[in-house]
Automatic annotation (TrEMBL), chains A, D:
SUPFAM superfamilies for the chain: MoaD/ThiS (SSF54285)
Sites of the Glycyl lysine isopeptide (Gly-Lys) (interchain with K-? in acceptor proteins) crosslink: 113
Subcellular location: Cytoplasm
Taxonomy, superkingdom: Eukaryota
Keyword set, alphabetical order: Cytoplasm, Isopeptide bond, tRNA processing, Ubl conjugation pathway
Gene3D superfamilies (UniProt xref): 3.10.20.30
GO annotation, biological process: protein urmylation; tRNA thio-modification; tRNA wobble uridine modification
Post-translational modification: C-terminal thiocarboxylation occurs in 2 steps, it is first acyl-adenylated (-COAMP) via the hesA/moeB/thiF part of UBA4, then thiocarboxylated (-COSH) via the rhodanese domain of UBA4.
Official protein name in the record: Ubiquitin-related modifier 1
Pathway of action: tRNA modification; 5-methoxycarbonylmethyl-2-thiouridine-tRNA biosynthesis
InterPro entries: Beta-grasp_dom_sf, Mopterin_synth/thiamin_S_b, Urm1
Recorded family membership: Belongs to the URM1 family.
CDD domains, A to Z: Ubl_Urm1
Length: 113, 295, 295, 113
């Protein structure tokens, strides 16, 4: 549970982000990332999941195939988001405000059999 | 001679004795299994182990649906088939294996793809369905048919080193359906099956065995019998599996319940059996991928 | 004609292609599997599914040890056997099934109980061992033999609705052995096998498939090759499974490492191969139950 | 995380105790128990796992076959104790001092196959 400040003195929060079901290949084949995020966005609102998705696209994803993660400004269909092991639909989806120590898991739904 | 006074035949006590003595199982669970009719949709990497353990446990009727033939490239994971049966219908190949394991139950073969046209005719013959298919189009179709016919659905999937398992529409009309969880299909470019993306045999094997376990437990505890009163759907959980470098990793996550405006299962749902048969185009709903499929 | 220029035969690319394309697997992992010799001790509820997925994945040599014959009461969970093979040696019955699944690898049958007298002769023919047995005496014996011969050991067990899985002696001489974790055997009155206490088929099935997965992953990542330098034992974890009423439950727990004064694997250990063969009485060590076995 | 007082004003701590691998049948077939224990034993020492095992035998176990749980004053061989998902041998075994909210899992080692 970490809240810290970055070099400019802005408040940060540290969360764990995990990828599974094949999504890890968009993020340098790394399943687990520890991320320090600004605690508030540029408009001064608490950072939420929408902000995190944006941050992942801009600062973490190396793969150029962004459309496999976001489509039309939102997460693409077929990706589950689990906030501390609960479906994000139980937690407010993109509006959920991140707390230090949160675990956010992005899982591609699988169809193989 | 006197009539046999026991509810199971002698050979059944012999065959099923080792599970009947498990605490909480017993004769009643065995009789429920014997009276159950279970449909396995897909005789591939999930369907093979799932069907093996369902047949072993003694369900009354076990049905298999699949239109494909056995290929050599299936055999690292589809353990009910055999090299000598390459080219044979997967359904018949699997049933050949299952009959050797347990010749005392009834098998039904459906050598066809489950489709909007035949879904009602096939699914209505069974009490419980296992989705062991490998494409979103069939996953939406199987779920819709289960919703419309009031059948619980044990759904699993696997890809590369990952797997997922969830019990849907259970009890029927109470638990969420596949569309409640995934109202919009994934873009076709993001859909890759085990044939194109690969899968480790025991990864899909574990998920198939867990499907059989979930089905057996649901049947054993009376989950197919009409619920007394308004039984609540249990907390909805999905099991997520990853075969990571330092060993197997399982995670049970909490999922949402029914969606009030679900196209398939909500009170205002537009879906009917007639509609399903005549006007739902699952291929169009899920789209068709451009040539290069990537994830 | 030119010599075949590829490291695997054409039919091997066909058969194993779907696992070779899994990211992180590839040709090197397939060649490692092909060069590996794996021993499955026990052709029962764990050994059947474990051997099926090992054979499917293409290990080079697959050995099975078991002295028992197939019985009808095995068939709800021992899915490599068949009703027509009741009375046949379990090892031969399982190999009959495995050869149909994959006739392109080498099978070795050992139709005998693993014992202190034959353990060295049998285990020394393999690189990796799976403990699929069903009694503490054999679990201590298999572990001791693996320690003395420097073989990693994938150990699993199941009972009623529970299962356990752990990787032992890996890398050899670094990870803990069975005696490190359980220096004293359980009192014989507390020991009940699946025959007496029962087990659900898919419960033991899941554990057997996970054993195959753990073995395949260890081989694929080069875990059988001599480690460079003093490679540390990874964090030791045991997977605990329960089939509880509301679905499957897995729990991964942290275990202790090697025991400094372990009778088998410590630097001052008294155990030698000669000692094992001539003077370790595993039955006496584990004791003999009084007639009523309870837990 | 609960610390409370019982009716005599003695400090209590609440922990979760679980049984698995068949041991639950010694404890009324109940896998999970929430237990309120005295925070200190009768000699004023912090309650430890040894104290818990004693407490389970005296106050929780209904089964008369005590020898399937304890032998010679200690836990019988063949039972694993996991304190917050770690082998008790990593935590001090019987001497581990319980903290509010701890999870203690007793698992019978299995031998079937
Ligand atoms: Zn729905
Ligand atoms: Zn040792």
């Amino acid at each position: 549970m970490v809240t810290a400040e970055d070099s400019n003195g802005a408040k940060q929060l540290t969360i764990a982000v995990e990828f599974s079901g094949g999504l890890e290949m968009l993020f340098s084949d790394q399943r687990r990332h520890s991320l320090a995020l600004p605690a508030v966005d540029k408009d001064g609102r608490a950072s939420n999941i929408g902000f995190l998705i944006d941050h992942l696209c801009q600062h973490v994803m190396r793969d150029t195939r962004r459309e496999l993660f976001v489509l039309g400004g939102h997460l693409r269909p077929g990706i589950l988001v689990l906030i501390n092991d609960a479906d994000w639909e139980l937690e407010g989806e993109e509006e959920y405000e991140l707390r230090p120590g949160d675990n956010v898991l992005f899982v591609s739904t699988l169809h193989g059999g | 001679s006197k009539p046999w006074p026991w509810p199971l035949q002698h050979h059944e006590y012999q065959r099923y004795g080792r599970q009947m003595i498990v605490p909480g199982f017993g004769l009643q669970a065995q009789l429920r299994l014997k009276n159950s009719r279970v449909l396995v949709v897909g005789a591939g990497g999930l369907g093979c182990p799932a069907a093996a353990y369902l047949a072993g446990a003694g369900v009354g009727v076990l049905g298999l649906v699949d239109a494909d033939q056995v290929e050599v490239s299936n055999l690292h994971r589809q353990v009910a088939h055999s090299t000598g049966r390459v080219g044979m219908s997967k359904v018949l190949s699997a049933i050949a294996y299952l009959r050797e394991l347990n010749p005392t139950i009834t098998y039904k073969s459906h050598q066809e793809h489950l489709s909007a046209a035949n879904a009602e005719a096939v699914v209505s013959q069974y009490d419980l369905v296992l989705d062991c298919t490998d494409h979103p189009t069939s996953r939406y179709l199987v779920s819709d048919a289960c919703v419309l016919l009031g059948r619980p659905l044990v759904s699993a999937s696997a890809f590369q080193t990952s797997g997922q398992l969830i019990l849907l529409n259970s009890p029927p009309g109470r638990g969420p359906c596949y569309r409640c969880l995934f109202p919009r299909p994934p873009p076709p470019e993001s859909v890759v099956g085990c044939g194109e993306g690969g899968v480790l045999g025991p990864v899909v094997g574990v998920m198939g065995v867990l499907q059989a376990l979930q089905a057996i437990e649901l049947i054993a505890k009376g989950g197919l019998e009409p619920a007394e009163g308004e039984s609540e759907a249990r907390e909805q959980r999905m099991l997520i599996f990853s075969a990571v470098a330092d060993g197997p990793s399982f995670r049970s996550v909490r999922m949402r319940g029914r969606r009030k405006d679900c196209f398939a299962c909500s009170d205002e749902a537009g879906l009917t059996l007639e509609h399903l048969e005549t006007s739902v185009d699952y291929v169009q709903f899920c789209g068709v991928a451009k040539p290069v499929a990537l994830l």
